[in-house]
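dude i think i finally got it to work??
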Amino acid sequence: MPQTKFVIIPGPGARTLRITFRGFWTDETVALYHQSLQDRARAAGGGTQTNRVLLDLKHCTVQSQQVMDRIDAILESYRSQIEHYGVLLPDARLSRLQMARVMTGRPATYFETEEQAAGWLAS
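look at this
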């Protein structure tokens, strides 16, 4: 059975969310991810603002430019609904640089450890 490329789960607070990313993504993976976000937003009643979203990239690999551009577009589409992002960084330097570039201009805090990230999401 193939490994799930993303998991979207509620965070510890009422308006928090944790999204875990894994592996290398294809255009199909991005489309499934975007659809999952839209389905979740519809189920929650639409434009509800989320205080904090933790993007857990610890097990994510370097992505193609096309995938990163699509992720950037998805993040942009939720700009008015997300107050602040936390980014749990992967070990790979190039992956870190990719995410730093995508998060430019967005409110984001970066974390090296799970403990730091979980504490931020719970605060």
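The first strand starts at residue 6 and ends at 10.
im so relieved honestly
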